[in-house]
Amino acid sequence: MYSKLLNRFIVFFALANLTGCAFTQNNESAEMNASSTTQVNYDLASMLKTAEQKSTQDDANGNQFIPLQHHKTLSNYVEQMALDLVDTLEYESDTDTNINIAVTTLVDLDSSLTKSNQLGNQISETLIHQLQKFGYGVVDFKTTQTIDVNSRGDFAFSRDIEKLSEEQMASHVLAGTLIYRSDAVVVNTRVINAHTKKIVASSRKLIPIYVLNKEDIYLSSN
Description:
By secondary structure, the chain is of the alpha/beta class.
């Protein structure tokens, strides 16, 4: 009888020790996991803070994202502008089937609205091509009454008002402005009814500086 009680006590004591060891190991494991989680959270917060500081510093220093390779051209952006304009012009064409658009030079958005540059002129020239492709009549008001022939060549264009036609051939005028930012140029264009001065179509596009730099387009005013 005494031997049986002793054996049971030994078994009970052994089980208690095993349970205690397992409990201790579980606690140690939980503490290690908690410590590891705390360390990971601390590291992540530190990394985010460092990245934020670097981003702020880059902005302050004028550093900008420039892709190593890209296939975007100025013509791609101008084509998107033309599509925006045409989408609205379709409604105008329902009431006026004889739309003739005079495309003017895009100007800097300043107090005078008379300054432009290579970018403003190039966008205007490309818009003439795009609108013509979409089937709209485009009036070139810079065409002279006669061809000027001299030793330098034969010329049909002029900005001399006395050489240009006084007739109002355009039913609509396309005009626009350029707004310069550190990393892009914002281009706003609109088509205006020449008789009512009502804006019948508009577009707004942001052209990244790296696209203009790739094509060596100068932004200094003429």
